[in-house]
Design brief:
Helix content is 39%, strand content 20%. The protein is built from 12 helices and 11 strands. A hairpin with a 2-residue loop joins β5 and β6. α1 crosses α2.
Length: 308
């Protein structure tokens, strides 16, 4: 069903009616899952390979994210960052390797069960229902928790009424957390780009995920908007104990915000460590600026300045 048709139905019947369409996935089992060590990180990628035809997108990627960690993945265009996120979300099946989420290990993550696995994401391109209010967009982040039937939601029977009230309360709390009170009844499509990005973050956070995937959350923002978004990302980690995987092109923001940074180049991980370790890594400098390291100091100094 197209987004426009979903939006129309949600507008006519209320956002809870839209959630009933998603209720059908609750019966789908999580297949291909095997138990793993109880002390495992929130997410671990193990020896991931991915190729499209003869083009290698990812090669031998190992990556882990701990609870309450902001884990950044950076790299030049075409480095494999989007492919990595799509593997975590189950949109791509890797040629080799496994994806470990909490206590489960997968060859391919079941996309329909991401919410049950406590994973939420934002998108590089905005994915809001622009004809719905800010509050209703955020309420939609709770739809996978709904257990009432389609008829119960239409009629507004007891369980559906409770779920609707709970979703509204959770949305209002997130509106307050992200300082969106002044815009809560505005149509999402009428807001500035920076505010729409904040609404999308609210919708992802309202379900209180254990792992939040942020795909270029600050792309196209002004300096002020980037600073505000960085504050909210850090606050989300601190307040909700959320592990965050951050894909972002603004290297300055990444190095100031992240606990650890992995760097991809042509599908391979060329560096992984703290921001200071990555900032001073010659391979990272080469990947971003294309300079060959010699005994000359100036190219390295220029490259390090670019990474600050």
């Amino acid at each position: 069903m197209s987004e426009s048709l979903l939006e129309s139905r949600a507008t006519v019947l209320g956002v809870d009616a839209l959630s009933a369409r998603i209720d059908v996935v609750h019966s789908v089992p999580i297949a291909d899952a095997v138990p793993v060590d109880i002390n495992s990180p929130v997410l671990a990628l193990q020896e991931i390979d991915l190729s499209f035809g003869g083009v290698v997108a990812l090669s031998g990627i190992d990556l882990s994210i701990s609870r309450k960690e902001i884990r950044a993945v950076i790299g030049p265009n075409g480095a494999g960052k989007s492919s990595l996120v799509n593997i975590i979300c189950g949109l791509y099946r890797p040629d080799r390797g496994r994806i470990v989420i909490g206590k489960r290990s997968f060859e391919q993550v079941p996309t329909a069960r991401l919410a049950r696995l406590r994973i939420a994401r934002t998108f590089q391109n905005l994915a809001l229902f622009k004809g719905l209010s800010v509050r209703d967009n955020i309420v939609l982040g709770c739809v996978d928790r709904a257990r009432s039937s389609f008829i119960e939601q239409i009629v507004g029977l007891g369980r559906a009424h409770r779920e609707r009230s709970q979703a509204r309360e959770q949305a209002d709390a997130m509106i307050s957390f992200l300082r969106l009170e002044a815009f809560s009844e505005r149509l999402a499509g009428t807001l500035s780009y920076g505010l729409q990005k904040r609404v999308e973050l609210a919708r992802a956070l309202v379900a209180r995920p254990e792992l939040l995937l942020l795909d270029e959350p600050m792309a196209g923002m002004t300096v002020t908007e980037k600073s505000e978004m960085a504050h909210f990302v850090r606050a989300a980690r601190d307040q909700f104990d959320t592990a965050i995987l951050l894909i972002e092109h603004d290297i300055g923001v990444v190095l100031n915000l992240s606990d650890r940074v992995a760097v991809l180049d042509y599908g391979r991980k060329i560096a992984d460590g703290t921001p200071d370790q990555v900032r001073n890594n010659p391979l990272v400098i080469d990947a971003y600026l294309g300079v060959a390291h010699t005994d000359r100091e100036q190219p390295e100094q220029d490259a390090q300045e670019e990474l600050r």
